[in-house]
Design a protein that fits this description.
13 helices; six-stranded mixed sheet; 21% strand; alpha+beta; 38% helix
Length: 476
């Protein structure tokens, strides 16, 4: 038994009919995986993966954050499902099926995950779509869940040695209420402490950072606290785009694999990082899309870039993530200058983050009374999404293993992330995962804003080619 953190609970509370907090991955496998074999593998490994064997236990009257309790009667026939694609079974049909699956909310009366075996792909391949709620895992925890299914060879490894971590018994409803009242009594003091800690970091918080004078106040507070000068962050207003504003309940998904070696060629030619190249490729693709759909703004887009704040050795429980905003230079025509603008902005964030990791999202969540958090989250999302969204697009780049992996003997060919879009973060999410020599990119869009997500994946390829051509011009 463990209680959800305030940040975990936020991912439950902001969900509406249109904002859904599912994070997922689409694996393409070489082979036709058998459902019974996958269920047998899960039976072996579930005891050692807490996120897959627990469900929510709400506190009476919503007075506190829910608890995780063990599900003793886990129904694998419910959680592991099979579907088939009609002929010809191509990638677009697969993506359309994933689009529908990803938009569906998970049943909160059960453990918050589902796996779909998708048969009918051509060339002897099949899809494996794995979905889990963001309240249960962040990016690091999600990687742990995926790793539970994977092996280093076609022969599955034996079950993990040792006994799994025991689950504490769930508290009684009376105990839950008692803890909730104690927490509620302490909340005003916690809110005051958050306010004091937050002042040096106000310029990191979307929406708040736009208020005139915030950067000056934050800088003064850091100096008073003895933290010294930290690199300033640009408080840019997010321009309006065709993918800004409240999203619908419908999703589009597309995917593409970019050669990691080509990205490294660009990195080496211009003396930047792989992540800089990825961000610049995204900027180039979005510039091309905007030019074809209403025009390129005269200032940068604002990208939301997730960062883990999990410390080395910290237990992998709950979400330990924050989001930083970075200008994305879509307004710059020259691809090399665009890459340089991206490099400078990302370096500024890294320098700032290394001095003081941004924990404002977690601390802000903890400062709110649990009983009011749900209403406050949904109201804030609705208001900000309709008036002045602070972010245009979410972009994430997750490094992965550079060697082949297997699921029940079937080789994992590619693994495409399928992430979250919201009213606040915009109707486009581009998430990248490097695996076995390629950068696997999953693009999620709002169907009414960007009906054809494949157009963006095509423009990602074009943007990488554009940078490679510039790299060839300057030589080795």
């Amino acid at each position: 038994m463990a209680q959800l953190t305030a940040l975990d609970a936020q991912f439950l509370h902001f969900e509406t009919a249109t904002n859904v907090a599912n994070i997922a991955g689409l694996a393409i496998l070489d082979g036709d995986l058998n459902r019974s074999d996958l269920q047998a593998l899960l039976e072996q490994r579930l005891p050692h993966v807490a996120a897959l064997r627990r469900k929510l236990a709400p506190v009476p009257l919503g007075l506190d954050h829910p608890y995780w309790i063990r599900e003793d009667d886990l129904d694998l026939d419910y959680h592991v499902r099979e579907i088939g694609l009609p002929p010809p079974g191509d990638d677009r049909q697969l993506a359309e099926q994933v689009s529908r699956l990803h938009a569906r909310r998970l049943d909160r009366g059960r453990p918050l995950w589902e796996i779909y075996l998708i048969h009918g792909l051509g060339d002897g391949r099949m899809g494996l779509y794995t979905k889990i709620h963001h309240a249960a895992v962040d990016g690091v925890g999600g990687a742990d869940v995926l790793a539970a299914l994977l092996d280093l060879s076609p022969i599955p490894a034996p079950p993990p040695e040792g006994e799994p971590e025991p689950d504490e018994p769930a508290p009684s409803r009376t105990a839950m209420v008692g803890r909730a009242l104690t927490r509620l009594a302490a909340n005003p003091a916690q809110a005051v402490r958050f306010a004091a800690r937050a002042v040096p970091h106000l310029d990191e918080i979307p929406v708040v950072s736009k208020v005139p004078g915030v950067e000056l106040v934050s800088g003064l507070a850091r100096r008073v606290a003895g933290a010294g000068d930290a690199p300033g962050l640009p408080a840019l207003p997010a321009p309006r785009t065709p993918f800004s504003g409240p999203i619908s309940a419908h999703r589009r998904f597309a995917f593409v694999s970019l050669p990691l070696e080509e990205i490294k060629e660009v990195r080496k030619a211009f003396g930047v990082t792989v992540n800089d190249v990825v961000m610049a490729v995204c900027a180039g693709a979005l510039r091309q899309w905007l030019a074809a759909h209403g025009g390129v703004p005269d200032r940068p887009l604002v990208a939301g870039v997730p960062f883990s704040v999990r410390e080395v050795g910290e237990a992998r429980r709950g979400n330990q993530v924050t989001i930083m905003t970075a200008p994305l230079a879509v307004h710059v025509e020259d691809p090399v200058q665009r890459l340089e603008e991206v490099r400078v902005s990302m370096q500024r964030i890294k320098d700032r983050f290394s001095l003081a990791p941004a924990r404002w999202l977690r601390e802000f969540s903890e400062s709110m009374p649990a009983a009011l958090m749900g209403l406050a989250s949904r109201s804030a999302f609705g208001l900000v999404g309709q008036t002045s969204p602070p972010i245009n697009v979410a972009i994430s780049n997750v490094p992965g293993p550079q060697f082949p992996l297997y699921v029940c003997g079937a080789r994992l060919l590619t693994h495409y992330p399928v992430s979250v879009i919201t009213d606040v973060s915009g109707g486009v999410n581009i998430t990248c995962f490097s695996y076995d020599g390629s950068l696997d990119v999953g693009v999620v869009t709002d169907r009414t804003m960007i009906p054809d997500a494949w157009e963006i994946t095509g423009r990602l390829c074009d943007a990488l080619d554009e940078l490679r051509n510039e790299a060839f011009r300057i030589g080795p």
